[in-house]
Amino acid sequence: MFHVLVTDAISADGLAPLLEADNIKVYRNNENYNPKDIQALLVRSATQVNEELLSTLPNLQVVARAGVGVDNIDIQAATKHGVVVINAPDGNTISTAEHTFAMISSLVRHIPQANSNVKGLEWNRKKFIGTELFGKTLGIVGFGRIGSEIAKRALAFRMKVVVYDPFLTESRAEKLSVTSLPLEEVMKMADIITVHTPLTKDTKGLLNKSNIHMLKKGVFLVNCARGGIIEEEGLLHFLNNGHVAGAALDVFEIEPPTNRDLVLHERVIVTPHLGASTKEAQYNVSNQVSKDVLAFLNGHSVSTSINLPTIPKEIYNKIQPFFQLGKKVGSILSQAMKTPVEEITVTYAGNITEWETSILTKSIIAGFLRNRVDTTVNEVNAAAIAKERGISYGEKHIDESYGYSNIIEVEAKGKDIRMVVRATFIEGYGARIVHMNGFDIDFSPKGHLLYVQHTDRPGVIGQLGNIFGKHETNIATMHVGRMLQGGKAIMMLSFDQTLDNRLIDEILQIPDISSAITLDL
Ligand SMILES: NC(=O)c1ccc[n+]([C@@H]2O[C@H](COP(=O)([O-])OP(=O)(O)OC[C@H]3O[C@@H](n4cnc5c(N)ncnc54)[C@H](O)[C@@H]3O)[C@@H](O)[C@H]2O)c1
Ligand SMILES: O=C(O)[C@H](O)COP(=O)(O)O
């Protein structure tokens, strides 16, 4: 059973994949739970996922942000703890774009102020003369998912759209009918500026007390991204001196906001971080992270991770079975060698070489380390832990795939010891180990296995069978591999339960058996 803690107000409908799964127990923050049980944490922007919180959840494997911004999550601390961070990058794009556009429209037509005026039983029509959007220039800073949706809406209102985004290509700007310009140009040209970047060290105070004077006099400013991208002190200064005509803010440097002069300013309209607060967006982000968390806990890799290399979805789907196989190969080596390993080399051949394999290599390293360290190891921290333990690793791609459509070969070397395992994934058949230390073999890497090295002589298998029979232990499957008749050979047996050590000791008494190692996969 996996235990999932949901701390913020996350859509219950969207949580259905987790709530309905047989092997998942979901706790809300106000329910009783043991912090040591929690393997997954689901948050929005309210929970601060910092070192302090991470240390209270020692078995946490994944933090999922039901939304876009991960500035409430200490990614570095999570990575150090081996915790994968995922988010739902596109589930609230439309809602936030619509909210931003509603804020722009409200701002230029003074709708919130006029609403309060009429509700205050006044009827002041002259006070609320507005500005048309038609023909005006909208400056969009940050032209990602939300920025580009806003551009579509602005163009439908027959506005001109100029954008600044250092990562925007000319062809994408052209395709979306916007003009891409340096920030200074956008600042000089725009009648309204809306920001849609993440909050980073580069975007903090992007518009500030020293540069807002460069904007057109009478400009309107909008921030529905993150508090601080437009510096609040600078904004207030230029509102007060009349350079800025008005501002619409959904987000604040401190939330709830403490800057009363700004919030209460008569030309400022505000909402309490409502960009993503629609039924649809909340369902989308909750459902998206629930599916990802479920997949992750069930041993599958995720495609939206913040602190893992990103793999395009179509490649991710193809490469996904190899992650589990890779971890198992790593685990086989780790359990079979039982001695210090200094170097691991992963060789890929066949169609798998068409893909980016570095993350797969990290999976293999994680699978290897899992049996050897007492902390959580996964693709996120495998490289760091391997380095810490003095294990170097590398990967290469070769042409020889031994007749299989794909091959992963892992060689682990230590002082006077070397072991090689070769595996493949066959569509419709599954994962197979096809070679071990010079022996061709063919078995499925799962369950409770016994890896036996012996001499190929009549009677060895019979003696082994007798011991299992005596202990009423049923052999589920058995695979044998040898190089030469009468020479060294190996056996891989599988069982329905873990084998008792006394039984292994008895097996080792058989003269032609040189080693018998249990592998739990
Ligand atoms: N108010 C809300 O409820 C709400 C909801 C969703 C998202 N957001 C915020 O909106 C932000 C944008 O969301 P998105 O989904 O469009 O993200 P996105 O990643 O698709 O787009 C962000 C864009 O900003 C650009 N960028 C990065 N650094 C920049 C810089 N220094 N100058 C200019 N552009 C820069 C990037 O190239 C990217 O195109 C999020 O980071 C989040 O903080 C707020
Ligand atoms: O980054 C986001 O997704 C938005 O800011 C939404 O935040 P929320 O989930 O706290 O509403």
Automatic annotation (TrEMBL):
Keyword set includes Cell membrane: no
UniProtKB keywords: Amino-acid biosynthesis, NAD, Oxidoreductase, Serine biosynthesis
Segments traversing the membrane: none
Keyword match Lipid biosynthesis: no
E.C. designation(s): 1.1.1.95
Superkingdom of source: Bacteria
Catalytic activity entry: (2R)-3-phosphoglycerate + NAD(+) = 3-phosphooxypyruvate + NADH + H(+); (R)-2-hydroxyglutarate + NAD(+) = 2-oxoglutarate + NADH + H(+)
Xref: CDD domains: ACT_3PGDH-xct, PGDH_4
Pathway: Amino-acid biosynthesis; L-serine biosynthesis; L-serine from 3-phospho-D-glycerate: step 1/3
Residues forming coiled coils: none
A single MF term (Gene Ontology): phosphoglycerate dehydrogenase activity
PROSITE patterns tied to this protein: ACT, D_2_HYDROXYACID_DH_1, D_2_HYDROXYACID_DH_3
Pfam family, one: 2-Hacid_dh
Domain ACT, first and last residues per copy: 449-521
UniProt family annotation: Belongs to the D-isomer specific 2-hydroxyacid dehydrogenase family.
Physiological role: Catalyzes the reversible oxidation of 3-phospho-D-glycerate to 3-phosphonooxypyruvate, the first step of the phosphorylated L-serine biosynthesis pathway. Also catalyzes the reversible oxidation of 2-hydroxyglutarate to 2-oxoglutarate.
NCBIfam families (alphabetical): PGDH (TIGR01327)
Protein name: D-3-phosphoglycerate dehydrogenase
Encoding gene per record: serA
